[in-house]
Description:
The structure is a homodimer.
Chain A: E1 6-11, E2 15-21, H1 24-29, E3 37-39, H2 42-51, E4 56-59, H3 62-73, E5 77-80, H4 87-98, E6 102-103, E7 115-121, E8 127-132, H5 146-150, E9 152-158, H6 165-180, E10 184-188, H7 192-197, H8 199-209, E11 212-216, H9 217-224, H10 229-236, E12 242-246, E13 252-256, E14 259-263, H11 277-289, H12 295-309, H13 321-328
Parallel strand pairs in A: 1-5, 1-9, 2-7, 3-8, 5-6, 9-10, 10-11, 11-12
Antiparallel strand pairs in A: 2-4, 7-8, 12-13, 13-14
Amino acid sequence: MTSATYDVIGVGNAIVDVLSPTEDDFLTRHGLDKGMMTLIDTDQAAALYDAMGPGIEVSGGSAANTLAGIASFGGNGAYLGKVRNDTLGGVFSHDIRAIGVDYRTPPATDGATTARCLIFVTPDAQRTMQTYLGISVELGPDDIDEGAIRDSQITYLEGYLFDPPAAKKAFVKAAEIAHAAGRKVALTLSDPFCVDRHRAEFMHLISGHVDIVFANEAETKSLFEVDNFDTALQQIRGHCEIAALTRSEKGAVIVAGDDIHVVDAAPVDRVIDTTGAGDLFAAGFLYGLTNGRTLVDCGRIGGLAAAEIIGHYGARPEMSLAKLLADSGI
Amino acid sequence: MTSATYDVIGVGNAIVDVLSPTEDDFLTRHGLDKGMMTLIDTDQAAALYDAMGPGIEVSGGSAANTLAGIASFGGNGAYLGKVRNDTLGGVFSHDIRAIGVDYRTPPATDGATTARCLIFVTPDAQRTMQTYLGISVELGPDDIDEGAIRDSQITYLEGYLFDPPAAKKAFVKAAEIAHAAGRKVALTLSDPFCVDRHRAEFMHLISGHVDIVFANEAETKSLFEVDNFDTALQQIRGHCEIAALTRSEKGAVIVAGDDIHVVDAAPVDRVIDTTGAGDLFAAGFLYGLTNGRTLVDCGRIGGLAAAEIIGHYGARPEMSLAKLLADSGI
């Protein structure tokens, strides 16, 4: 691989999260799908926010969380995703730049407001997400920064991007630019319902455009519409170079050609909020990969970052992942 | 005491906090007074926010935190303090109402933006606060809701209110209404520098208008300009009915007439961020007091709430204080 300015460039929905501890019966009363991400409109967002308990606002967005994690490890990252020039857009822009990511998309000066995700965290630390996408859906092919993509070892795309139609085109354009420049393309499947909504296109893309796939157990099974994880694991094998499959407290399985590596989860004192666990696993994995580590070490570094994020509310690291990694001996 | 709709009504600066983990050398480089609250203007706030690391936004404001704590215990509370009808004003209003406080001040439709406090949290869990007061300084005598004050067992005022001149008048008006209705008035000294700025007026007020004083060790010593805590403790005795003096990990001392009660601090697993420790001590103490508990129990309930708040970022409780109290056996 020729040298690159960025280890990873992320493309995704730029979102500010509003997190609130919630009892399970709140989810039932409001008909929310536990553990899932659901898209909501402005009116639904307003009504649900009224009903929600006191919140904590933290920058989020799946790929943005991953890039924040890579920067916290000391990696060089860039990000593409759209906010408005409003208060939450200012918060998002500040946070991602402050952690050291080169955020390249200028804020929109008109249109919908910055995206917001209401996250209900139940006592079992599960998160249930209700997303108002706002201006983030307007990310389109014109926002794909060709030079930056060419200059990144890996272009990392979030599956959620498949929900807005313009972003889907942006996604394909980014993948084509990356491959033409001899770079790699990574994709996270994001959510089993997201896989359901776009299964055929995901399969087509993974086979044709994607080198590295991140998925959890439910997403992997949903992709192949099977009930058994091992069956799904065998099926994904032929479709991409590397599949990093996460299984919560059971750790991760890394599939690469004929090799299968099983990696244990990192120990955690107390699980508070699982928001961002998958995003931060991807951060550690990609940081390892772009720094020449073995696939097993990549999985272990991913587990380390995921363990940090689930110990507190919010999907952005609260301590230096570079320091955590140095102390870990991995 | 005749019955009242509210246990406590709080009057204070309505603020949204932006918290960020920071190394000590950042404070040195930017000339920030560690552990203190400093007022800054719009330009200083913008420059400091640019330099600040990634943040977490949580509703704050000293008296507002206290009222949120009282509501979390199951107490009835009301709050007076001013926000703008902007995004952060919406966040503040949502959060305080969502926890069950009757927030009675309508948002301003013009003027400065909602107040914001940049809080730098060092690895020793100390917080250093830089506050842009924005619209909150416009709280004046006209915002004092006479009916609500008359209908509250205790009117609780934050010392920080002494910084904006209009609020100082509001403060005196609130105290006079409360006393005329046969109610009690409580005051927290807020910050040793705040005491420095307004020492003579604080002394005058405590002697004439205040029944219950909350102060930490530094504030108590600053009030009487002495180096020794025991000297200060003896001096405050004659000036008010109850003085609840907090001493961090050394617990609290409650002074009431001839009685002095020493209360141990509640045990804490891990201290992450001391923002709001004093505010939540006051919450537990006032909840106990308005529910007929002994002064020692009031101090212990205060310690319980303070212990919850210092275990995570932000000055609003993340778990039900009513449940914590029930489980504690106090």
